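Dear colleague,

Thank you for sharing your sequence with our group. We've completed the structure prediction you requested, and as agreed, I am returning the results in plain text so they can be pasted directly into your records. Please verify that the sequence below matches your submission; if there's any discrepancy, let me know and we will rerun it promptly.
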Amino acid sequence: MGIVDGIRKAIVGFSEKRKMRVLSNTFSVINGYSPVFQSFDAGIYEMDLTRSSIHALATHTSKLNPIIQGGGYKSLEKILQIRPNSIMTTQQFLYRLRTIYEVENNAYIIPIYSDETEIKIVGLYPISTIGSELVKADNKVYLKYTLGNQAKAIEYERIGHLRKHQYTSEYFGSSHSALNSTMELLSTQSQGVINGVKQSANIRFLAQLQQILKPEDIEIERKRLVTNNLSVENNGGALIFDNKYKEIKQIDSKPWVIDDKQSELVKKNVFNYFGVNESILSNSFDENEWNAFYEGAIESFAIQVSQVISGMLYTDDELKKGYKVIYESSRLQYASNTTKLSLVTQLFDRGFMTHNMGLEIFNLPGIGAEGDKYFIRKEYAEVIKLGDDQTDGKQVIETPREQTQENPDANNQDPKA
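Please find the predicted structure tokens below.
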């Protein structure tokens, strides 16, 4: 059995035949979804600027780290952090999930079960909405999808469904129709540049003959003029012709291409649509630009995928107890060393951060279990209790440094003595 075959079996469980039989007998399609942008020859992922934007979002999203809070699936934490399924690492899983999400405004997450009971989830797998559909049979919604050229089905309540631009449909995010005009401009701009270059390198001279010639003679004369005067062998630059020609003019070809302002407007439309900018795409951003990008484009996705997967793993009662999956980013790679030092210093001595957490910010290895302890400074006190001992309520009398065991009554001496 191959890797993909194993995943197919684990994903759909052992009740697959029963599910497909039910869906084949009677079902109604849940409409209202147009996932693929098709208003020009290529798809939205086939344009260089839009693909670069999606790649930046997927790359930075893939750095998220899953943390499980609560019981039940705590043993699944390490699997989700390293290899959520047998053919993808966590980085690859998140990259593909975010790419599907951005290209289609929807993305599915399918659970991988441990056995035929379909109770214990041991992995996750991302599924594209292309070739998939939601159907209803026996008052129950199913997801029909294709994996390895085979049709599969699973109850909708078992899967995770990420959505973007959700408005008109109860189930699905909207299409990329709002980007149609910008994508057409991008396509036209690319074709215009190519055709402009070709045109500028095509017709360079206009020659007028003085006599009437047959078409075949005109073609022979054109080739002779080009060979003798316009080939690379004419390195002197002089153009010589006889009285066969009345006039020869050089054509100043100025093909039209989109100007810089229009080009910047198109780029700005794409950047605004995806929430990126030039600095993010070229990896030349500073920590302020990174923080804005993270909060606007990464954090919201992390919250959604955390809530979706938590709903897949836990029951309502377990969710009420606080069990959940959090995709967090503790790797502040783009902060300056000054910012990192200030952050670690401020959070460590207030009990918000451990030694190991601080070392991770500086890309240093942890120090084992001892590094997971929390510490807090002891000189803090409530304002209303200043001067009181926080432990027993008694007033604290500080002992001056000058007082020693050899002279315990140093503070009681008369200053006039």
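Summary note from our side: The chain is about 40% helix and 15% strand.

Kind regards,
the structure core
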